[in-house]
Amino acid sequence: MKAVALVMAVLAAGCAAQRTGTELNPVAPAAAVTASQLSGTWRGELWPVGTDSTSVLNRDVMLDIRDDATYRLTTARQGTAINDSGVAVLDGDAVILQSSTGQSMRLVRSGDRLYGTLSSPPGRPMHIMMERAR
Q1: Within the chain, where are the H helices?
Q2: Pairing of strands 94-99, 80-91
Q3: 17: which residues sit within 8 A by CB, 6+ positions away?
Q4: Local structure of residue 15 (DSSP, 8 states)
Q5: Sign of dihedral through CA atoms 104, 114, 45, 125?
Q6: What is the pTM of this model?
Q7: What is the b/e burial string over 81-108, where b = at least 16 CB atoms within 10 angstroms of the residue's CB?
Q8: In this structure, is the dihedral angle defined by the CA atoms of residues 79, 58, 39 and 97, taken in order, positive or negative?
Q9: Residue 35: CATH number of its domain
Q10: The domain containing residue 120 runs over which residues?
Q11: Tens-binned pLDDT, residue by residue, of the chain (134 aa)
Q12: Which of 25, 40, 75, 91 is the most buried (most CB within 10 A)?
């Protein structure tokens, strides 16, 4: 149960550029992600800064962005999966995942890749990178 709480905190914490729900309007039509821009399934990994892809702390990540700009983010490690959901908002070259918990996570977009750095409790930085599944 502690592992579940830790990962949820990592996902909810967002990155250094964390925003609150009052700073953006995720339901604004111009800001909402459209199907042609980001919808689909993205797969990747979450891992601690300073380690590589063989770390025992790594988690598999799957992000599903739907046509209506809602998303479901799932992380899994050793058979334990954790889910988060909310609204995806395009912000220039970034995607902001505005969680239903009120937290947000900013990921940089480069073509079919999304990546960023999150801050996990107790402040350990974590990398996240995903590629669009074809």
Answers
A1: 2-13, 35-38
A2: antiparallel
A3: 106
A4: B
A5: negative
A6: 0.72
A7: ebebebbbbbeeeebbbbbeeebbbbbe
A8: positive
A9: 2.40.128.300
A10: 2-132
A11: 333 333 434 444 443 344 444 344 444 444 444 556 889 999 999 988 888 767 777 889 999 999 999 999 999 988 889 899 999 999 988 999 999 999 899 999 999 999 999 877 667 788 999 999 97
A12: 75
Q: What angle do CA 34, 39, 44 make, to 5 degrees?
A: 140
- Distance, CA of 85 to CA of 108 (rounded, Å): 19
Q: Which two tokens stand for residue 127?
A: 């990398």
67: exposed, middle or buried (Cβ count in 10 Å: 0-12, 13-18, 19+): exposed
For the chain, how long is the longest CA-to-CA vector? 41
Write out the two tokens for 16. 């250094």
- In residues, how long is the chain? 134
3-state secondary structure of 119: strand
Question: What gap in Å lies between CA 111 and CA 2, rounded to an integer?
Answer: 35
Domain count, the chain: 1
Token digits for 119?
């801050």
Tell me which residue of 91, 99, 44, 94 sits closest to 70, measured CA to CA. Answer: 99
